[in-house]
């Protein structure tokens, strides 16, 4: 018996040893397969005390460098915040179990985050529009890269045609299916209850869960990789998550920072903003030697983007050991992150803010002065100087530029006025669709040219926007633009919409399969009835088309100016004023007077109305290229774009008709107008065709030696006269005499026999323009358009017209070159770079772009003329109000006879000992005098000639409507 027991025990022990050995090697194999270090702690009982220690390298974020103005005031800095992270630490027996578990965690976190007033990160390639439809938020390479990531392809070229052409809805259907994230998977009620999941999700919840799962999946290639789900959460959310970490295994809250921008409206176009790195940025930055991951925040535009490598800093790392649930057991070594470097700018913060406010006041003054109580204005009957702004344009602009929220008119919270307006809109829309249907189904539809303007607008929108751009039903690539019927529709306007579409169908230009109807069994009339149904269904949800309807409601007095003004109060666009509200409602206060009063007080800004003018720019530099102010109007709030982007705000900015993302100082380029005449002066003197003191040219008012002839600004076509008479170079600069400089341009193209060669004249003027820096961008560290010099018509080029275009920054460098008598410096916004401890790493030194060699008497002639521009009885005489001696040159550039001219003014101050140079442009600002007004006020501010409160009043600046004087 003893031997039997002994043998049995021995067998049992041997069996147990074998089992333990097998288990040990199996566990070791599994751990080795997952590429984790294995450490078995000592213990007496291996079965009960077996503990995993998993080695993990934890990345420590660096702190982004900060940006300061010239006085050390912070413009972009970091603020402590808390970020929700998630690590998938689970092990699952099936995809179904994984989906249920992760969806449970994601849904629970979503509810905690949102119920406490926070938001998850939604930087994803798909979003929901206001109609509840999915759409792509990316385009081009970024969209293709997004699709490749979702489909699990390393290269875009690996995508199939089906994947490349997948719609947002198709991709969402795939992602929420059982094969992917199982958000809308096939589960029993018991399974959903077990994992605390609801029986259904809203579309918004479905999208957000998809985004969260996608973020986690993006890091699934590396176990225990943290994924950021939400940033800048409040303390209530922090407390709830930390108390429930056992419920949401893998979740954590870590200290982080968010980017904060001071005085954002004034500096956003310069600073740009930061955001989640895109696939394209990740590829580019790492190819350039960076060490970025998909979680990183990078500069997306402006200086944040330009100085990305300096601001980013270096990441650190910490070695920790975690258990199989991801909980930290112990910490090992640590390499501390290195904070990014700080950038100090040349920008004078106070000057930048003042320039912006002054510019806005003057633009508002132009709109206020030129607005008239009328429905329309015949622009063809007057010159550009006398164009006026009908108040009905302002009424419509409030809808066109999305100031009034048309979608709120039909909401449950709509006011009585909103409800009344919406009912009028529905009645009008029904009338419009009925007319469109009648035209599509009629046996005798009207030709386009026979339609009233309103119906032409609707028909054009259907063809160009709906059928071609938006839906692709009308294939623009398939159309033969030389086809007679196509020309009859687009140019001659002699056929109807029905005739054009009938022909387009017969030629295969229309893809009828995209119309939701079985076209194989329909005759022609049935197809057009079906098309009318589709058009009505589509356009009833189309904001762009709705705005067209509102326009003609306004023009036909179906929507009154009074109701529009009341909507401004009801929607909170204007602060409620009972007196004004009641006066409008009773009719004792007219809509025209009300709108003008709100423009005057800047309660309605030029940017909101987006009429012409609604934008402008100011650039001020010292004489070595340091930019003291670089203003573009309008600006925007980059705080809403950094960190967690406000998608609605971004969409609004992107569709704003005042184009706030388009930098008017560095990207907008127009003809320089008469400001260019100083280049022509230099060319004329150095080429020997004029002597600054002895050459006299007699202005006859109309320069007949060009085709077509060129009028001097003083000449009146209606009166048939107007001339300056005898002009020297100095007086020609003072008077901005077109005739004089047209003549110089002609002379620069003549050879010794008097034979004229336009190309020779252009070549000579180009040579001297390049000396002033117009051969390249200025060097400023944000995106800048390249200068374009004229390619034809030397007499017109000589006065700053033809096809040349320059930016305000390039004109400012030009003004600085004039001020320091020929030394052309590159521009810069950077003063110095320091490390986080304040140690200077780099100081920006002046960079000379070119030096113009010219004798002092010639410089004196140009400067004297510029000084007389300011001191003589011209449009700029009011600059003397500053009591400051300065040099200036006006410029009025015509772009179209049907639009107000651009107003420009350049110069330097003080005249005797220059310290600063400047350039101002008001796009469609009517005249150079308005641009000069901006500089008059800004110089008064900069040199403390007037109190700030006298200059920056918060109201529109008085300007004069009338003829340009240059």
- The termini sit apart by 125 Å
Q: Biggest sheet: strands, sense, closure?
A: 7 strands, mixed
Q: Enumerate how many helices there are, as a single number.
A: 34
Average pLDDT over all residues: 90
Low-confidence segments, given as residue ranges, are 1-13, 31-49
Q: Structural class, from secondary structure content?
A: alpha+beta
Would you summarize the structure shown here?
With 966 residues, this protein is an alpha+beta fold. Helices cover 41% and strands 14% of the residues.
What report would you give on this structure?
The protein has 966 residues and is an alpha+beta fold. Helix content is 41%, strand content 14%. Strands 2, 3, 6, 7, 12, 22 and 23 form a seven-stranded mixed beta sheet that branches. α14 (391-400) packs antiparallel against α20. The chain starts with a helix and ends in a 15-residue tail after the last helix. Mean pLDDT is 90; it is low at 1-13 and 31-49.
Key features of this structure:
single chain, 966 residues, alpha+beta, 7-stranded mixed β-sheet, 5-stranded antiparallel β-sheet, 41% helix, 14% strand, globular, disordered N terminus
Task: Please specify the SSE layout and strand pairing.
Layout: H1 2-33, E1 54-60, E2 67-68, E3 74-86, H2 95-115, E4 126-128, E5 134-136, H3 140-150, H4 161-164, H5 168-175, H6 189-194, H7 203-218, E6 227-230, H8 235-243, E7 251-261, H9 264-271, E8 274-276, H10 279-287, E9 297-299, H11 302-306, H12 308-312, E10 316-322, E11 328-335, E12 342-345, H13 349-370, E13 371-372, E14 389-390, H14 391-400, H15 416-441, H16 453-470, H17 484-492, H18 497-506, H19 524-539, H20 543-555, H21 561-570, H22 578-586, H23 591-600, H24 606-609, E15 616-621, E16 627-633, H25 647-655, H26 677-686, E17 697-699, E18 702-703, E19 710-711, E20 725-727, H27 729-735, H28 738-748, H29 758-774, H30 794-797, H31 808-819, E21 823-825, E22 830-834, E23 840-843, E24 848-851, H32 856-871, E25 887-893, E26 902-909, E27 916-922, H33 928-942, H34 948-951
Parallel strand pairs: 2-12, 13-14
Antiparallel strand pairs: 1-10, 2-3, 3-6, 3-7, 4-5, 8-9, 10-11, 12-22, 15-16, 15-27, 17-20, 18-19, 21-24, 22-23, 25-26, 26-27
Helix pairs in contact: 2-7, 13-23, 13-33, 14-20, 15-19, 15-20, 21-23, 26-28, 26-29, 27-32, 28-29
């Amino acid at each position: 018996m003893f031997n039997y027991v002994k043998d049995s025990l021995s067998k049992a022990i041997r069996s147990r040893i074998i089992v333990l050995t097998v288990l040990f090697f199996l566990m070791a194999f599994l751990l080795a397969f997952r590429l984790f270090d294995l450490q078995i702690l000592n213990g007496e009982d291996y079965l009960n005390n077996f503990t995993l220690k998993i080695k993990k390298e934890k990345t420590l974020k660096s702190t982004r460098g900060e940006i300061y103005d010239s006085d050390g005031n912070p413009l972009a800095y970091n603020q402590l915040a808390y970020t929700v992270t998630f690590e998938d630490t689970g092990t699952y027996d099936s995809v179904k179990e994984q989906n249920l578990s992760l969806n449970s965690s994601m849904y629970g976190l979503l509810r905690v985050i949102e119920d406490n007033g926070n938001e998850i990160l939604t930087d994803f390639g798909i979003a929901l529009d206001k109609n509840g439809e999915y759409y792509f938020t990316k385009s081009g390479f970024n969209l293709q890269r997004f699709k490749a990531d979702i489909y699990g392809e390393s290269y875009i070229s690996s995508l199939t045609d089906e994947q490349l052409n997948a719609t947002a809805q198709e991709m969402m259907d795939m992602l929420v299916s059982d094969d992917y994230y199982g958000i809308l998977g096939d589960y029993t009620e018991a399974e959903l209850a077990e994992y605390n999941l609801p029986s259904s999700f809203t579309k918004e919840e479905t999208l957000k869960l998809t985004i969260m799962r996608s973020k986690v999946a993006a890091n699934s290639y590396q176990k225990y990789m943290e994924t950021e789900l939400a940033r800048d959460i409040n303390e209530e959310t922090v407390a709830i998550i930390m108390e429930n970490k056992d419920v949401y295994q893998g979740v954590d809250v870590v200290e982080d920072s968010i980017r904060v921008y001071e005085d954002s409206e004034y500096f956003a176009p310069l600073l740009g903003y930061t955001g989640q790195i895109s696939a394209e940025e990740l590829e580019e930055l790492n190819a350039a030697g960076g060490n970025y991951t998909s979680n990183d925040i990078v500069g997306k535009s402006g200086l944040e983007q330009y100085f990305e490598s300096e601001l980013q800093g270096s990441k650190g790392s910490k070695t920790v050991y975690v258990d199989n649930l991801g909980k930290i057991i112990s910490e090992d070594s640590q390499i501390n992150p290195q904070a990014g470097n700080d950038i100090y700018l040349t920008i004078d913060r106070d000057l930048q803010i003042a320039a912006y406010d002054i510019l806005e006041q003057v633009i508002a003054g132009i709109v206020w002065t030129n607005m008239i109580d009328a429905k329309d204005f015949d622009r063809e009957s007057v010159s550009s100087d006398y164009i006026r702004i009908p108040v009905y344009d302002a009424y419509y602009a409030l809808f066109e530029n999305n100031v009034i929220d048309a979608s709120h008119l039909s909401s449950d919270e709509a006011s009585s006025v909103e409800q009344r307006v919406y009912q009028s809109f529905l009645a009008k829309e029904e009338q419009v669709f009925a007319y469109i249907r009648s035209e599509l189904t009629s046996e005798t539809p009207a030709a386009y040219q026979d339609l009233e303007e309103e119906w032409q607008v609707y028909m054009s929108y259907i063809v160009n926007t709906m059928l071609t751009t938006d839906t692709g039903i009308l294939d623009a690539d398939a159309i033969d633009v030389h086809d007679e019927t196509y020309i009859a529709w687009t140019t001659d306007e002699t056929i109807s919409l029905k005739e054009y579409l009938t022909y387009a169908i017969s030629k295969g230009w229309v893809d009828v399969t995209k119309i939701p109807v079985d076209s194989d069994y329909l005759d022609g009339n049935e197809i057009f009835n079906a098309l009318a149904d589709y058009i009505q269904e589509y356009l009833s949800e189309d904001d762009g088309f709705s705005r067209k309807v509102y326009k003609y409601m306004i023009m036909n007095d179906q929507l009154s100016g009074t109701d529009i003004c009341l909507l401004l109060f009801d929607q909170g666009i204007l602060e409620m004023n009972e007196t004004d509200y009641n006066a409008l409602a009773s009719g004792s206060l007219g809509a025209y007077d009300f709108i003008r009063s709100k423009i005057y007080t800047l309660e309605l800004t030029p940017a909101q109305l987006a009429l012409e003018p609604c934008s402008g720019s100011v650039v001020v530099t010292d004489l070595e290229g340091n930019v003291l102010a670089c203003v573009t109007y309008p600006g925007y709030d980059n705080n809403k774009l950094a960190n967690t982007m406000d998608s609605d705000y971004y969409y609004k900015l992107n569709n704003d008709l005042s184009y706030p993302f388009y930098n008017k100082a560095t990207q907008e380029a127009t003809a320089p107008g008469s400001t260019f005449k100083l280049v022509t002066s230099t060319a004329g003197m150095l080429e020997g065709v004029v002597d600054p003191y002895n050459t006299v040219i007699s202005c006859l008012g109309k320069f007949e030696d060009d085709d077509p002839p060129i009028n001097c600004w003083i000449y009146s076509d209606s009166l048939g006269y107007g001339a300056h008479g005898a002009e020297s170079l100095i007086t020609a600069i003072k008077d901005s005499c077109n005739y004089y400089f047209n003549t110089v341009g002609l002379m620069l193209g003549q050879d010794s026999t008097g034979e004229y060669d336009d190309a020779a004249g252009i070549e000579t003027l180009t040579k001297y323009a390049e000396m002033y820096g117009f051969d390249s961008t200025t060097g400023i560290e944000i995106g800048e358009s390249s200068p374009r010099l004229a390619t034809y018509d030397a007499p017109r080029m000589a006065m700053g017209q033809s096809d040349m275009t320059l930016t305000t920054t390039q004109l400012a460098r030009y003004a600085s070159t004039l001020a320091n008598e020929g030394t052309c410096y590159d521009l810069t916004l950077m003063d110095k770079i320091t490390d986080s401890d304040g140690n200077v790493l780099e100081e920006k030194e002046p960079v000379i772009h070119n030096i113009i060699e010219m004798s002092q008497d010639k410089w004196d002639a140009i400067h004297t003329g510029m000084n007389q521009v300011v001191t003589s009885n011209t449009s700029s005489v009011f600059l003397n109000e500053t009591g400051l001696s300065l040099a200036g040159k006006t410029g009025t550039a015509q772009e179209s006879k049907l639009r107000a001219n651009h107003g420009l003014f350049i110069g330097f101050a003080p005249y005797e000992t220059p310290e600063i140079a400047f350039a101002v442009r008001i796009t469609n600002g009517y005249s150079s005098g308005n641009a000069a007004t901006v500089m008059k006020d800004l110089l008064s501010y900069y040199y403390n000639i007037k109190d700030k409160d006298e200059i920056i009043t918060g109201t529109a600046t008085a300007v004069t409507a009338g003829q340009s004087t240059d």
